[in-house]
Amino acid sequence: MSADQIMSAEDFQNLHLDEDAMQDSEHNQFANLHSELEEARAQLFSIRDFIRFSVTQLRNYDVVVAQGTTDEFAEAAAIVLHSLSLDWSANEQILDCRLTASEKQAVLSLLEQRISERKPLSYLINLAYFCDLPFYVDERVLIPRSPIAELIRQQFYPYFDVNERAVPLGQAGSDKAASFYDHGLDMKQLSQPERILDMCTGSGCIAIAMATRFVDALVDAVDIDKGALEVAMVNVDHHDLGHQVNVIESDLFAKIPAENQYELIVTNPPYVDAAIMADLPPEFLYEPEHALAAGQDGLDLVHHILYQAADYLSPEGLLICEVGDSEWALNQAYPDIQFDWLKFALGGHGVFAITYDELIANRALFANYVQRLDGAQ
Predict the structure, then answer these.
(1) d(Cα 284, Cα 69) in Å, to the nearest integer?
(2) Looking at the chain, which runs of residues are DSSP E strands?
(3) What confidence tens digit (pLDDT) does each residue in 131-162 have?
């Protein structure tokens, strides 16, 4: 150790004083939390009371609500209603019902754990909702939250024909009749897909949701991670869709038979870039890193998917791909391609649609990027 690297006794002492101060601050912070929870236990009575109190505490302690919902009220309601074994969309009439002492304890225990551990609620209760369907989740998979749910609900209208299982999201004209939201898909109204691929399936939520909307389609759910596929299988079994959803372990398209031709490919791959990965809030550190991180610009997997997808997409097919905040990087990587970025009624961005013809027309560009990536590794 050089002379300028030697720590003085005073510096050493100050270092430990700083550590002690941080520990004391953390202790005091949660001492306040404990007293606030005790006050709530004594003075609050109704479901409505505890939802309001939970919202306040989530905000006071800067809990990041961004996995499954970005609404503190929705998160607080889920904490309270789940603790009471009630449906998360409980009827307004029950909100003034009073809680027993043991019910108060259940609510406050879950709230305290959510605040003190910063662990996402879905991991605490092993439950998340996607497309109004329940899914088992744990730390082997990301918590479902893709805006692609909107597209699934209305069966990717107007690209495909719809039936009674499609759910309109918008309001039309002066008569206020429900209408299909214009996400920006080209008007084609093709026959409903017979084969669908969900690439990077994780918990299987997208594959399963599509299977419930396209009941006559076969859906392949693909992921490289065995742990994630175990979770996906739990969800396939829970929804009794083993006859329709086929779970495949594969590194992207590597183990998918070449003869498989899909009318619809949907992919929500890892797409978080290095800068964002380095600054994630504590809640996101519970999620599997390999399901988030995708290289310097967040597009390592997306380049490969764009290059290979045409071999598996039917000539009348559609690829839907989510890249989130890496939208800008994708436009920079392919400035000559006019990607069709979709709009969402309920919020969300960074999802594009691309056809078979567009994939073929730009394949040389995709190949060039893949070669550069492979050469750099």
Answers:
(1) 13
(2) 128-130, 133-135, 170-172, 177-179, 195-199, 218-223, 245-249, 262-267, 313-322, 340-341, 351-355
(3) 999 999 999 999 999 999 999 999 999 999 99
